[in-house]
Specification:
This protein is an alpha/beta fold. The chain has three domains: 377 residues, Rossmann fold, CATH 3.40.50; 109 residues, GMP Synthetase, Chain A, domain 3, CATH 3.30.300; 132 residues, NADH Oxidase (3-Layer(aba) Sandwich). 33% of the residues lie in helices and 24% in strands. The two termini are 53 Å apart.
Amino acid sequence: MKTELERVLCHAKEMPDKIALRFKKQSLTYGEMVEEIKKAAFKLEKMDVHPGDYILLGAPSRMEYIVAYLAMHYVGAIVIPMNKTNAMETVDYICSLFPVRYFFTDDTRMKERADYASLKELCDNAEEAGEEVLKGPYSIQDENQISEILFTTGTTGRPKGAVFSYKGIAANTQNTVQGSIMEESDVLLLPVPLNHSFGLRMMRTALYIGATIVLQSGFMFAKELETNINEYHCTCLACVPSALQIIYQQAGERYAEFLGKLRYIEFSTGALDVATRKKISKELPDTKIINSWGSTETGGVLFIEIQSEREKIESAGRPVEGVKIKVVDAEGNEIDSSRDNPGRLAMSGDMIMSEYCNNSELTQQTIRNGWLFTNDLSYIDSEGYVYLLGRIDDIINVGGEKVAPVEVEKYVNEIEGILESGCIGVEDPKKMLGQVPVIYIVKENQEITEEIIWKRLGQCMPPYMIPQYIRFTDNVPKNYLGKTDRKELRKKWDGENQEGAETVDNEIIKNMLSRRSVRNFSDRPIEKTYLEKILECARFAPSGHNMQTWKFTVIQNQNNISRLREITQKVAKEKKTSFYGFLNPKVLIVVSNDRRNVCAVQDSACAIENIMLAANSYGIGSCWLNSWIEISDEDIIRNELRTYQIPDTHIVYGIVALGYPSGIVKTPAKKQDTIVYADKGE
């Protein structure tokens, strides 16, 4: 079985001019990519990197990462893909497990490390090497040799290293070749992390079959997704379920226009909930929807194509050829499983990891006689489809009845007006049932109440499964892969229910946490007294050196607002800058500031935040429009500003659209990994 590197070398000879990689305006053909791989491999040899050396590799979503990844396999090094940014203690811990030769990264925080090496310099400054000088490609002597190590979060908080042999990685790739429907002619849009199992196997699969990869760094901007799909004629997309909420929130119903151009979308790193499966398959009828399931330790092993296997829409899919599965009891004995008699999922095949590095005890608990035992509660139906009920340690024991959080979420999410939910088990305050379910809900429809939810659930769920407590929230916490973070939900519950917790969230905090961007407004006018108070809050915002060089221009005439929308759209299109439209606000507040003031940007941002928070306190929606930052000095825009007596020395740093919300106000997911306590030792 050939590796993806061997296949890439073949592609370079057979179709050298085919585009292999794209990133923004850059591209590499297969022929060019192999030349870059050889240059980087030659530099690695000059840096004294030998077969079997351990190399950490930062994983930005850029072409040099893929070139470096393949170059390291070219010289026979053991690759350890890392997140593009890492906590120093995480890197130190991983380096304590084995002798790391280099850490190739562009994370400048790591420059002081003795093992630091620049990823950019490895690829940009790589030297030419003749075939007689370059020793590679490395000849694999034993398919059981270590190829790479993937790290995943452990239950202790320390990452676990899943060790893969060359045979394991090759089988991992082949499973996706089988289970996916990717073809050589496909153009894969790849916005998922490339240090994670899902991103890596999609990358390997595309390279293996000779497809084209378009790289994108995450799903933060739906506009970038749309642009890449249109500009590079992408035919398939690797996606995580949580990204859909971002796409919905930013693009609204328009999302189907650009996602509908794709031949297929593959979702992984967490199952699409049933309600979303039904919705997306209906709204994207010409796009095949594939859900794959696996783990860091196995890669993708279960696949289902939603439309053609609709009668099994609740399942995680079936295993591909070469993968064996079974369900076992607490003692590890295989059982005849069913929904009423689930057990622990186990699997075997060449794709499973060899071991957890430096953790023989955990390895022995996880792998027995060639079978890898997961912590997933599941059952298998008569046709071989696997149904996952959640992690065993998440299962809620309600008076002896086992309740899976994902089952509760499935019923809750099917209620119209609910955007998403997260379920956990907590100790029964009444001391009767042991544990009871709690559900945190993000409302899509503000009319949804606890009474409505309990009534609907009472019609379709067994009584012991119905949540005893309902909490409404602005977002369900997610980990960096977009999976529901139940540990954070438990912390949230504990914080809300400990003595004195009610004093933590005062009215100001609640107002800040409930604010969200509103883009569709009703016809209801904004009361004059409210508007005046909102503007007063703007004036009282912090200002560097108390300069207060800002100006707040209020526009309420709908004809003027329409004119501004048309002018902005025209200029933004010409200048190829962002424009999302003013839609139908009742009021625009143009926030400008003197460009000569070094604090102008900060002052304006503080004032805009005050405007939005003040508006939210009155139930008024707002949205920050920043198109004019880049186009304030365009002639047509500047002339318009002059009509409002805005000085030529001023730049418009933002326009705030105000109005009462019309209908649904969706809440985007908030990242959980953006706060760092730097002084941990104090």
